[in-house]
Amino acid sequence: MDPQVLILIVVFFGLLMLHVPIAVCIAVATIITILSLGDVPTAYIVAQKISTGIASFSLLAIPFFILSGVLMGEGGMARRLMDFANAVVGRFHGGLAYVNTMTCMMFGAISGSAAAAVSSIGGFMIPEMERKNYGREFSVALTTTSATTGLLIPPSNIMIVYAVVAGNVSVAGLFLGGVIPGVVMGLLIMGACFLMNRGQAVGSGESASLKQVAVSFAQAFPSLLLVLIVIGGILGGIFSATEASAVAVAYALLLGVVIYREVKIQDLPRILLKAAKTTSVVMILVGTSQAMGWVLAYEQIPQTVSAALLAISEHKLVILLIINLLLLIVGTFMDMTPAVLIFTPILLPVVMKLGIEPVHFGIFMIANLCIGLCTPPVGTCLFIGCGVGNTTIAKVVPPLIPIFVAMTIGLMLITYVPGLSTWLPSLFGF
Description:
By secondary structure, the chain is mainly α. The chain has one domain. The protein has helices at about 5-15, 20-35, 40-55, 60-75, 75-90, 95-110, 115-130, 135-150, 155-165, 170-195, 210-235, 240-260, 270-300, 300-310, 315-335, 335-355, 360-370, 380-390, 395-415, 420-425. α3 packs across α13 (about 270-300) and α10 (about 170-195) crosses α17 (about 360-370). The longest helix is centred in the middle third of the chain and has 31 residues, at about 270-300.
């Protein structure tokens, strides 16, 4: 192994094991590796790559979508989405589990944040499900996993990050590509709930009349309209994905302040600060990862990995399985954004040699890393869910396992049935 590659790996994972923030791990490992090259101007390269890495028009969408998500989370949308989901599926045996999943899917998509979905939906649904005999641990496990499905359904910040790192990949195409996989994943989680609650003495809600369904839909529709505005505007050529993010902020502000009136003017500085903090974390990650990407390219690591994988097997199914296993392992100790930033430039050349479209790879990569958000030791959603539900990871793991099986089945379908990710984009010419 090249000494510089060894230095990069040892420093990066050494700092990671010491619980150093991931952006600092990337930056320090990159700087030390470039210093070891000897004849390369370290400060110039790192500063240039960080600066140019975040100087992207597409990345402007991230702070706007983050701000719109925070506004949606603060504006009472979660409760209205729950009421609508309860009216539709709450009547069935084990209906609260379906309500939880459906609400997390919708809220996660609207807010663009799985963590926000866990905290917002879990705060209400976990105690309610426990009261109806579902069990606290099952409720936490379900909320944690269901929240990740919203990252596949547009608008999704992680898709924008992937598009920027991959290069020449349409954000609109990725948005469309994630719709069917996100729904499939949600339905499989519901299927797991059906099997787990079959024969259990869990409560179900009352049957809602057609009028109640219509009323709850009318109350939730303004929130759901955000997705239609973003996707419809992009497909209609009215605005780009970046411009759509600004429209999303204006709409979320109108909805929270004027229509629902649950966001006060005096709350805006706090909301803006919260969005700015989240944006700064993402941008620092993007910048430092672009610097690391230069080192990877300089040392020809993507070509080396590609040759190594193809030496194992040239069969597409085998290579995809190896990549999925690698990403599942990565997802257990690395958050989704840095994982996408680091492994996209390494693995994308491999799959493109196999004839796999970048949109398809991006969707199954995100679906894979969504599972990592629910697994220890670095499962962000799992930690939040346990905090909201006031329980421990050890107690939540047993009910998590059947849902993990369902999510893994969904991942295999998304991976080996490309049409799930590519049909809608191709239908609209992306």
